[in-house]
Amino acid sequence: MREPMASDGVFEPETVAGDEQEAGSAAAEPLVEPDVNFDEHLYPARPKALRPTARRRQYYATRPSFEFDGRNAAYVEWLRNQAMLGDANALARQLSGQASMWQNSYAHPNPRAAVERAPVWFTAYPLSFITRSSQSFLSALGDPAMWEAFSEIGIRAIHTGPVKLAGGISGWSQTPSVDGHFDRISMAIDPVFGTEDEFRSMCQVAADHGGTIIDDIVPGHTGKGADFRLAEMNFRDYPGIYHMIDIPEEDWHLLPDVPEGQDSVNLSPDSEQALQKAGYIIGRLQRVIFYEPGVKETNWSATRAIVDTTGKTRRWVYLHYFKAGQPSINWLDPTFAGMRLVVGDALHSLVDLGTGALRLDANGFLGVEKSAEEQPGWSEGHPLSEAANQLIGSMIRKVGGFSFQELNLTIDDIKATSEAGPDLSYDFITRPAYHYALVTADTELLRLALRLSMEIGVDQASLVHALQNHDELTYELMHFAAGHRDEMFELAGQELTGAQLAEQVQQTMRERLTGENAPYNAVFTTNGIACTTVSFIMAALGVQDPDAITPEQEAQILDVHILLSMYNALQPGVFALSGWDLAGITALDRKSVEELTAQGDTRWINRGAHDIMGTSPDAKYSSSGMPRARSLYGPLPDQLQDPGSYARRLQQILAVREEHGIATGSLLDVPGVSHRGLLVMVIQLGSGALEVTVLNFSDQDIAGSIQSSHLVPGSAVHDLFSGASVGQVDDLHSFFLELPAFQGTALLLTEEDAAPGEEEGVEHGEVSP
């Protein structure tokens, strides 16, 4: 944190209004000449990199005070000099009126352009990434040797995860992040991860290898940093950043007392209802994320009493969809301060740091509105979220980047946002369904989810199909559990409402993946299962003791991991995987992270530290203190020496995907199957040819017909992995295929007698990955 500094100025009173109040004396200071960086050569339409200049001079307080509130002018100025809103305003002034802001189309999302630019992503997690001794996370991600390995495998982008300062401010001190650095408090890079120069160098190395760096912004909330502390002091525009309600002192009896040593307290349902009846807040919302009795029972918290810059003592109630340390941003305040803060953060990443894309975190919760009497407030699927996402996505495209969202809502909502907002959406549609397919050896739910997606109009090429990321295995199935809870669906021969279907799937997953069957995994609140891909597979295969895995079981785990990789990669859209996937990481013993999981956040067991390049084989912890987890596959340099390793088998899958343009194809059909463990996806490639992905989610060898009305009789069928001829489409629009247990393949249909490069003497249906 920067220490308070002295200057020859005088503390500026609060009475000034407008943008100039935020600039302070910066208007009189010369702007730093923009630097030319590699982005100009690749994307000449982008503006030159502009770094926010110092916005204001520092001031002594005219009446010194040791209070950490509005009475301490030096403290207020110290906060102003690190607030994100101030950085956003400074950056905006440097970009406004520039011709470069008008060189890119921005109105409509362009998912295929985004996929072509970055078709395969590595999703990093800073806290869990083991580096060489004294090497920073960002320096490690910019290591040319790692990028050479990635290029060889077929990985073309890195999603860094959040690396800017996060957490909060208490007095002069910074407090730690409460949610894995998603509670951002600054545009500055957190020194624990590296420096801005290392970030820019990483972008340069990525570009040298034909790659892209993807950063994060958080449109839904901040941490309790300088911006929130200034908002508590009612300083200028800052309260407008948040959903904050000033409660008059005569009604403080409606507020709970704040415990000693804390700065806020969560409202009980009774307090929430009382404040709603008094007309202050809209009350309960559609759900309480991170619900924990005695910790978070509602989405509202009350602050302690604090003196503002005029000497008035105030208490506020503020909204937080997530944890109490993550106050929600208000996208429809008259100051539009929240909008300015978020857009400024996005522009800083794109035009200053040099990234090519941004992930929008928690962007489905940007609107909130009072509902009918006795009904929860409207907080999901709100039109304001769509409007805000349109604005964010358009601004990112306007400067030459693309964006993606993790929007765990209904398929209808994902369709709506895909029409105007981010270019890509995380695949929460089929992710729990393909996990359920493996658990039950039945693809019925997966086929249902894919067909619903097609019927509603979601383009599979607009989705990010991922294995593991830093979160839990999410199984909320919001399309069924919320938006279509009363609609009837069929599953396993039963007619179920959407709500019943979701509960049945969730209960099956809980029973099979946690508890006695898999004590190494854990339920995460109401959202899903905390596990790695490997520990999920172990549970699905019935492994109860990870320490007693046999070589045969390890081989089967690898086969299943490849199967899940094929599902995500051999369809249109982005394919994403993590270091936990590349190294085959198992879940941590929960005792090793018990301090982190003490308040119910079990996801820390699936965030074990890993060393994908093998640079620190003796390290027991990451530099951030995460315990090292067990790796079944080993580091990439070793894997690349083994043709049967996960990395080498993945390389074959990605080579087929790249050569035939599967990522930018169109999903035409998900036909019925002759065996419940089969999944068939018929995809039209850009060339007009048909590709058919066939996967066996069961532990049985399958032989049967593959049938779809889109298959043209007389077409030759070729295996894209082996090069072998599989057969010919008959007059019933079908062909015969044999597929071993937990295997898959990609087939090309042509009207020629043989495909180029066809090999003879290879068994039909043999799959080299």
TrEMBL record:
Gene3D superfamilies: Glycosidases. InterPro entries: GH (IPR017853), Trehalose_synth (IPR012665). Residues 1-27 are annotated as: Disordered. Transmembrane segments: none annotated. CDD domains: AmyAc_family. Signal peptide: none annotated. It comes from the Bacteria. This is Trehalose synthase. It comes from Pseudarthrobacter polychromogenes.
